[in-house]
Amino acid sequence: MGVREKNAWAMLVIAIAGVTVYLTLLAVNLDGGSPTDVSYQPLMLWTIGLGIAAGIVVHITLSIRAGLAGESQDADERDRQIERFGTNIGQAFLVIGGLAGLLMALAEWDWFWIANALYFGFVLSAILEGVAEVVAYRRGLPW
Amino acid sequence: MVKPTTVSNRIRALRFAHGEMTQAELGKQIGMTRQTVIAIEQGRYSPSLETAFRIAQVFGVPLDDVFQYNEGETP
Fold this sequence. Notes:
The complex is a heterodimer. By secondary structure, chain A is an all-alpha fold.
């Protein structure tokens, strides 16, 4: 497995772990009350922040390991095509999340729902992008 | 309606005919990773025309000695 494929796996695992931790903490803090009463902001910001930090650390670690093993870290044409394919798949959910947030804001929904619609747009985009890239690496591109 | 097509290749045979060249060595010569060479060999990735020509050039053979277009066959 090349360093780019390992990175795709790592980003997918981090995205899933991040949203799982966020939802778990949200459920714990819910305590039978309304979701809009939960102080979700620190939970969301911490899980996003830690996810970004974990992504950077894993990327650096994989690059160092690949460098020590003498593996090429440059993307070749297949890596670039797979990356583009993943981005195209993920972008759909980014747009859906953005539109959902916009419509909720126009309808004056609680900020909790707007923030979470945008958050889940980002998360689903990252997960779908990761899944698409991993499948493309394992089974090939669909064309 | 377009029929399903597939491109097969003889890269594995050509590597062995050229001093048992490794996938990593071929990858280095054509500017690709070893994983991409494996994917091309296994038919999981169809390379660009430029890469296909580079592979043929490494083995010193015409393009259709490396890649074959099999119309109507499923991968």
